[in-house]
Amino acid sequence: MSRAAAELTRRSPFATHPLRRYAFAWAHLAGRTGRHLDLGCGPGDFLAVLHQQGGPACEGADPHPGYLAGLAARHPDLPLHRLRVGRPLPFEDGRFDSVSLLDVLEHVPDEAALLAEAHRVLAPGGLLVLTVPRRHVFSFLDPDNAKFDFPRLHRRIYSWRFGTEVWHRRFADLSDDLRGDMSVGRDRHTNYRTADLLDLLRAAGFAPTTVTGANLFWRWLQIPALLTGGPLRRLLERGIHLDGRLFRSANLFVAARRLP
């Protein structure tokens, strides 16, 4: 790593962000050259910063039209691609030098197929940065499964917090093949055992080089943070950040190289 790249990594804009996955991804991607794809970029919280400050030539891809429209409005110079759930990626073989999948794998209908596509569009030796929720003692608190386990309660609480129209657009209108951020055809938000995830990566042709994680109690803080705002939310997010620095059990972070 060059001195400039090392300094860029040290001065991470995500150093105090409550979601430690962004700091992990920044540490591996900032200062790189070549082309980078943020696969499942969502509203672009990570991608936009990497695009502006990080170094690689960034592109984003996601199946959610609303996320892409908002990101395009804020960053019209950022190449974005609309994906179709369950279909091959619209990129030629070996196009990218790095790919990030930040809390995406647990949302897709076919994990092996997506990893195979990530392998295909990466150049040999290219870098995959992957984060997922890890299976641990508090996995049962995963709020993304509430819409399946307690659909009526989920609808009432979500509609109270964000409005009935937003609930209908995100969870009743399935025209974009998404139920919230979950692909239609998947009925659980997976929390992965480390060994199972590494087996998936190796089967897809990746060699893991870094395996770590973050958090333990964060679901106890994340759920109320989702339902509130203002100073209370900021206080809860500071607690999530501290939990991420102290513990390594609740989220799983992996960097891996694409094998030939």
UniProtKB/TrEMBL annotation:
EC number: 2.1.1.222, 2.1.1.64
Keywords from the UniProt entry: Methyltransferase, Transferase
One of the GO biological process terms: methylation
InterPro entries associated with the record: Methyltransf_Superfamily, SAM-dependent_MTases_sf
Protein's UniProt name: Class I SAM-dependent methyltransferase
Domain of life where this protein originates: Bacteria
GO molecular function: 2-polyprenyl-6-hydroxyphenol methylase activity; 3-demethylubiquinol 3-O-methyltransferase activity
PANTHER family with a match to the protein in the record: METHYLTRANSFERASE
